[in-house]
Amino acid sequence: MAKLLHEIEWSSPLLAVPVKSYKQELFRRMGPWLQKAVLSISQPVFFSYATPRLIGISQLVTSQENACRYCYGLERAAMKMWGYSERRIRDLEEEAVQADGITRRVVEFARKLAKSNPCPARKDWDALLAEGLSSQAVCEIAACVGEACFTNRLATLLALPPEDKVERLSESRVGRLLGAMIRKRIVPRRAPPPKDFRNEGPCAGIIEVAGNTPLAVWLRGITDGWLSSQLLPRRSKVLMLAVIARQLGSGYCEQEALEVLASEGLAAPEIDTILSTLSSPRLSEAERRLLRWTRETVWYEPRVIQESTRRLLDEVGEQLTLEAVGTAAVGNTLARLALVKQ
Amino acid sequence: VTPCLAAAVGSAAVAVGLLLLVVSMRRERVGLRRRVERSAEELERLQRSFARFAPAELVERIIEAGVLETGERREVTVMFTDLRDFTRLSEQEDAAVLIDVLNGYFSAMSGVIRTHHGHITRIMGDGIMSVFGVLEPNPWHALDAVEAAVGMREALDRYNEGLRGRGLPELRFGIGVHSGTVVAGVVGSDQLLEFTVMGDVVNVASRVEGLTRKLGSDILVTDEVRSRIGDRFRLEERKAVHIKGKSRPIVTWAVQG
User: Fold this and answer.
1) Residue B181 phi, psi (nearest 5)
2) A24 interfacial to chain B (CB closer than 8 Å)
3) Band of the pLDDT at A35, cuts 50, 70, 90?
4) CA-based, 20 to 30 A from B60: which of A162, A212, A229, B165?
């Protein structure tokens, strides 16, 4: 059962940096690909096929399902500034019983995909089509959930301090008035579908789930940036992806990961041993530690995973931890989206 | 003038009536909201109390989907833990001290079990039955169970230090671990419901725990567990023994660390 905002337990920030400059300092210490990813998620989501309302709702319920105190608080504030009443938001948070058919279906789908226990089934996808959404719009909603999973994990694992000021502002009339004025900056933004988008490279089969949408372009860019980063060996990163896939029962994603690992020189039996026992003489101590931490990033209580990430930081250092956090964010997005193909 | 006055008075009366109606409706709404809030608080309180009697995740799953009410087949690892010579201890010690010692022990053990993704499904006297991989998919359930067992050994050592300091006798336990398919679900009547797992795996895990004293080890795992954990632990083979309900003798492994 998804928690409400006040029920989420949240730790102090991961890095020992003053709270006021925490985000800037974190950003400065991130690798280039992660910096780029953070910049991209700081903007409103671009969409071409779904409606801004459905995109906003998907983001809200995904953040709630992932118990991300930071994103959930912000999404809630954005919806209030956007004109949603507290009652309507509460309804979305509590199973959307009052909502119309399509909203309810989107809420159910987003929750199921975000949680992935049990996995979303073909019928969940078909239910959205039956409500009159185009297949590209459904792809867009799935990708939006994926994007929110990415953002939620970054914010949770790094224990970003909640944006209290923005949340408080949304409670006031002035805030709602301001919201109406800065609508463009908080509401998902419509954009034309990408032209000549080429989804080529590792995990292309998974990214296909996002269709031909601006979010597919975003996901392709994030995946390529992540894989080409040198801060963590490619083998370690893809093993982390495979661990997430194994935990989620995402066979399609695991297969994609195995193909990349094979090109890295790891034989199938060895990969199987690693994935079955999270250990192997061929793994470095840091890799073993990372794989064990990675499995915790699939389902978690925020405070518990934040403490676990703090221990990881002590053991493997800041640079590897930040890369690992980015990897867990990408991995959880890809493995969840791949579930839709099963 | 009189009809005008009458109309004005009439309008005013209607306006006052409407105002009173609005005020009364608003009051009713506020009252209703307060009642709903009180009910929600009560529900939350009940949920918190219930969570102490059953795993919180389990409570959530039952409330959410009622999946386990219908029963599900799951690949899991079952772990039985039993205190040795506790009956003798219970005859010697004061009842209050005994309960205190036992609660401290359960608290220490349940923390380790939870950390390793296990769920305590039953406490039987001084025994604990816990299951790994039952509430959410867990491909590493056997690994988690053995790690939990080793962690419990360390936790017991720490707990015993405290008991020694209080002049109380130390505790010793035996742990049996076995993996396989079980049926998981909520069973019982409307008076008493219990979440449990059933099947041969449970019986074997319990019997293996019973072998710990005979085979001279505090933690014993079966071949089924060993095949799932790779070379993460130092294991020592014990001689094959017959257990009740099995036609063939079973091989167990002592976990050294």
Assistant:
1) -95, 135
2) no
3) very high
4) A162
Of the candidates A70, A60, A309, A296, the one whose C-alpha atom is nearest the C-alpha of residue A167 is: A70
Q: State yes or no: pLDDT of B113 exceeds 70.
A: yes
Tell how far CA A110 is from the center of its chain.
12
Counting one residue from A and one from B, how many pairs have CB atoms under 8 Å apart?
Answer: 32
Closest CA to B148 of B136, B156, B137, B158: B156
Contact, B150 vs B156, CB < 8 A? no
Contact between A199 and A208 under an 8 Å Cβ cutoff? The reply is: yes
The average confidence (pLDDT) of chain A is: 93
pLDDT band with cut points at 50, 70 and 90 for residue B69? low
What ipTM was predicted for this assembly? 0.86
Please confirm whether the linkage preceding A52 is cis (ω < 30° from 0): no
What is d(CA B197, CA B158) in angstroms, rounded to the nearest whole number?
31
* pLDDT above 60 for A186: yes
CA distances from A126 to A110, A140, A147, A251, B236 (A): 14, 14, 21, 21, 53
Q: Which amino acid is at A115?
A: K
Average of per-residue pLDDT values in chain B: 86
Q: Measure in Å the smallest separation between the Cα of A173 and chain B Cα atoms.
A: 21
Q: How far apart are CA B78 and CA B120, in angstroms?
A: 10
3-state DSSP percent of chain A in helix, strand and coil, to 5: 70, 0, 30
| A contact test, residue of B45, B75, B136 with most A CBs within 10 A | B136
Q: What's the first-to-final CA gap in chain B, in angstroms?
A: 104
Q: Exposure string (b/e) for A47-62, b if CB count within 10 Å is 16 or more? A: bbbbbbbbbbbbbbbb
DSSP codes joined into one string, B152-201: HHHHHHHHHHHHHHTTPPPP-EEEEEEEEEEEEEEEE-SS-EEEEEESHH
* pLDDT, tens digit, 9 for 90 and up, residues A65-104: 999 999 999 999 989 888 889 999 999 998 788 788 999 9
Quick one: pLDDT band at residue B92, thresholds 50, 70, 90?
Answer: confident
A292 touches chain B (CB under 8 A): no
| B137 at A interface, C-beta within 8 A | yes
- Ranges of H-type helices in A250-340: 251-263, 268-277, 285-296, 302-316, 318-339
Instruction: Note the pTM of the prediction, 2 decimals.
Output: 0.86
Gap from B118 CA to chain A (nearest CA, Å): 14
- Cα gap B106→B85, rounded to integer Å: 16
Question: Which chain A residues are Cβ-neighbours of B60 within 8 angstroms?
Answer: 1
Closest to B140 measured CA to CA, from B162, B117, B119 = B117
Q: How much of chain B is in helix, strand and coil states, percent to nearest 5?
A: 55, 25, 20
